[in-house]
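Summary for the funding panel

The consortium committed to producing paired sequence-structure records for every protein in the target list. Below we show the first two records in order, beginning with the earlier of the two.
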Amino acid sequence: MHARSALFDVYGDHLRSRGSQAPVAGLVQLLEPVGIQPPAVRTAISRLVAQQWLEPVQLEAGRGYRATGRAIRWLDEAGARIYRRVDQTWDGHWELRLVDPPVDRAARNRLRADLTFIGYAELAPQVWVSPFPRAELDEVLNRAGATARRVRADTIEPAPVDAWDLDGLAAAYRAFVGNADALLHRAADAAGDPDREAFAARFHLVHEWRKFLFTDPGLPAELLPPDWPGRIAAELFTSEAERLKPAADRYVAHCLD
């Protein structure tokens, strides 16, 4: 687990209700149970500041860092998808974007990754498809210096679900379910602190589940097979995350208060 992604998990899952900010010492203490060492935490913080995801702030407990407005928007959007708070009612139309990509190769690669992250798939060269309009699209295009024409299609036959790797995604969901027990027990606390252990277990659970943000486009139920393994995986994640949350919240309070 990289310190940078671990910090995103902490800010998104635990600090939104705390002003999206925390002292450095608290961040170090929160990430210790999941194996992130203090120097790695501090290095990751510096890089996130340079990338304008975090900004320094003076707190009562000492020097700290607050998520920027850009980071908060991203974390809220990610959180809505992680906890399935996004409305997936589909009206049967397809959203197509005919993208005029940036000239710079690195910017093009970043644009491809960002479009995939928010749920689009490349149906043909520079033609991206989604069953829903995505609120994040304008920001993604602006950040890359790209533009796109919009096409709203009543029907596409056959339905372009094969633009996404659903076989690979289904295998990943089955693996998540199969590995869940080991995942939840990998954080056994030799010190015998149940709150610390619950925090670490939930942290690992959310961290692994968050990876589906990069691969699952959130297709509506009508486009998925009846035995779609993502449903069982989502039920497992939700029940375990809720079960562990009270104890994890107590550990966060212990570290930050």
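The next record, for a separate protein in the list, is shown here:
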Amino acid sequence: MSTLQAITLDQVVDTDHYPLTDPESAEARAVVARARRELAEAGCTVLPDFIRPSHQEVLRQECAALAPQAYFDVETVNVYNTDVDAELPEHHPGRRTFERGNAFVARDRIPGDSLISGLYAHEAFQHLVADCFGLPRLYELADPLSGLVLNVVRPGMEHPWHFDTNEYTVSMLTQDAQEGGAFEYCPNIRSATDERFDDVRDVLDGRGARKPERLPLRPGDLQLFKGRYSLHRVSPVRGDRARHSAIFAYSERPGVIGSVARTRQLFGRVRPEHLAVEGRAARADHLLD
């Protein structure tokens, strides 16, 4: 029995404000309407205190116990997670490199009875997320490593500027950094048909009219984000406490599994499922990454 089942959904989630099991209620419709509006306007929305304050420490402790299992490897990357040695035009933003120092606890290291596992697989939670994104339904990733992960940014490290592989990103801060670790983003800086390399380069160079936005987040907040088209990062973490966040990865179609190269980059290993589908992954767009 999962933590979520043992404690019950109503005890863990603030169902007074987020009535997951009553999606037709006026409160639920208001939540969805606000989320859709903010996602359309800014590419991001936050459901504050989604986890009740009384259980935020349970959430923190569970994820903190998992954090030592994160695969950690400092890598030189660009915003597209492509080969940094590839030949690119002189002013191409892919020529800018950063040190990626965040780490991930893979899905197969997260117990099924944990709170975040219970949430990820809960039908009512999935339904709310799909509604907020304006989708008929969402599917859990078939990927055995990247469907549900814990992102760990240790002091002195950062998760540099990047785009997500998935169009729809769902995350929850479980432990904030002592200092730094801010979520910064440039909403809808590119589209499925236009990379807008000049705009991306200007942000990386800290110039131009496009200034990154900073999103205040607290442990227990649920963040819904269109990370495929919005450049974003977690700024360097300082102090003595790491930043932890759970990432719930869903797709509009079933059976999605990550590539061998990207999976090995993030987790240091692959599983037979990745090898079986290599070269046959379907893409919803033709963007560089």
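Regarding this second record: The chain has a mean pLDDT of 91. The first strand starts at residue 44 and ends at 47.
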